[in-house]
Amino acid sequence: MKNKLFFIFLLIFALGIKTEAQQKVDTLDWLSFRNLVKKYHPVTAQARLLDDLAKAKKTKALGGFEPKLGVDFDRKIYDGTEYYQFLTPELKIPLWYGLELKGSYSEAEGTYLNPENKLPKEGLSYAGLSFQLGKGLLMDERRAALKQAQIFAQASKNQQQQILNDLFKDAGEAYINWYNKYQNLKLYQNIVALAKFRFEAVKNGFAGGDQPAIDTVEAFLNLQQREVQLQQADYELKEAKYLLSNFLWLENNQPTNPDLLNIVPDSDFVVSLVQPSDAMNNPKLLSYQFKIKDLEIEKRLKAESLRPEISVGLGLLNSGRNALQNINSNYWADNNKINLKFSFPLFLAKARGDLAETKMKIRNTEIERELVNIELRNKQNQISAENETLYNQLNLMKQQLSAAETLLKGEEIKFKLGDSSLFKVNSRETKLIEVNEKYLQTIAKLKKAQLKSFWINGELTNIF
Mind listing the domains of the chain with CATH numbers? Predict the structure, then answer.
């Protein structure tokens, strides 16, 4: 009778009756975990700072087109005599295409003024513009800085994607690993409970004369082995929880204490349900495009140095403070100021060297982009093959799991009828545990492979 009871309870445990933890725990599901990482992890805050940096660079570049107000005052008094006194406030307004508007008003007085510095008593005003006809006509440092700032704004968005893409991959893998270790722990908790029941049943069977003494030793040894495996599974779960806590933060950059985390993963979580697109969207690959655009602007600026420097300044002079009065051709012919500057290096050594250096930078970046492109495509193909293989393995392991369970049940029936031994039953159970472990590992590998599929295509920020 005791032998029959033993096998009844053994069958109940084999069908999967699970022990429940007495301590209440919170469930950290996949969606909640993703939201916590996106909201509180310091790296996400660092990524958002790139927006501020891009705005700062644009503001700095716009400073090249900022109007400038200046005052030039110069006076000399010696031995009670005022030799001269000059006062010239002026306003400069930089424009596109190397143009610059300039307006000024000058006063000059003193005993020993140079004749060329003498001005009307009411002062002299000036309104004019300067521009470049050679170097700086098509591109100058002001325009280059602004264009590069605009490119940086686009590149910073892409860099954000790259930073977050890598962060979410690492965080997702940590969650999947934690999930896998938790499933292993539950497996061994059930196994240890079953081993304890077997040991007690065998002891009772031995006391009643239905079981040989050697079976108690076999049952006790099996229990010890399972308890060691349970301790190892518990340690691996704690280790995985510590790694997971690296991605769990609170407000104000406060890290969580993993020793105080009493959490379990979601029992049914899915990484994604959609198919990722092409690897050409990978942020690392796109970063080379922005780098090449930036270097193209630099190349245009360097190419300007191959032109001669020809700067022209034209201005209208008027007595008094109104610089724009008397605007007509006849007045201009008698009241103007013209400035012309020309310079040209005879050998253009520096300009040719700078341009050649920039061209080599562009070519080097293009080569790097092609290498990364090939690497990403190969990686994408490898991940696709990995996904397909893992799917096939998972289907085979389901069959193996079913077969191992059938063999264990069959061995238990034979043992009940006296045609087998507890050693063989334990061996069948060990095989079932191995298949179960590999099955859980394959599920974890498949989830990580799914995660990598979106990471390689730069789309983790869209699904995380």
Answer: 2-61+143-294+357-463 (1.20.1600.10), 67-138+308-348 (no CATH)
